[in-house]
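Q: what sequence does this backbone want?
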């Protein structure tokens, strides 16, 4: 496996089984795509950042290895991340971190969590898991309960800042 890809990619891995979570994901994807278009206007075509989505139930370690930046989205269920996102991490961890060419320290990432009552356990899990992969946090995670409307600006800013972190890493 190789982290090299023909085109840089921001990979957005999420589990969005409800309309509410899907609308949150759409905001993040839209913000990331807009930010990518903005930075792509300053770059040669071969360096244009592509924004891709991956359903957490369909893990792809090669795709994760090739990603230039990462965003993760999940609900908080029973005090933890969704089983789907946990499955994604379980299915890719050994393959990704065991790859001889794996160098994750410069891969910017962030995440969002929407819970019904509490996100504390899910936040701890995400922090532990992403530390294990060795990625570099590019933006403060957005973790909230209830209605996402008051958090849309923060979600969009998280996505934009993650794209920005990738862009500044090119220097």
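A:
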């Amino acid at each position: 496996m190789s982290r090299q890809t023909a085109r840089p990619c921001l990979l957005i891995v999420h589990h969005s089984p409800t309309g509410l979570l899907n609308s949150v994901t759409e905001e993040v994807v839209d913000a990331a795509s807009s930010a990518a278009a903005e930075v792509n206007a300053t770059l040669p075509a071969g360096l244009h950042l592509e924004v891709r989505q991956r359903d957490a139930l369909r893990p792809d370690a090669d795709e994760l290895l090739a990603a230039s930046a990462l965003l993760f989205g999940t609900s908080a269920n029973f005090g933890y991340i969704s089983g789907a996102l946990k499955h994604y991490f379980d299915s890719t961890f050994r393959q990704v971190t065991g790859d001889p060419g794996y160098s994750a320290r410069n891969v910017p990432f962030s995440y969002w969590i929407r819970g019904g009552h509490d996100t504390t356990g899910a936040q701890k899990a995400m922090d532990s898991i992403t530390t294990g992969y060795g990625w570099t946090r590019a933006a403060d995670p957005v973790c909230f309960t209830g209605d996402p409307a008051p958090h849309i600006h923060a979600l969009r800013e998280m996505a934009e800042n993650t794209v920005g972190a990738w862009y500044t890493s090119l220097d």
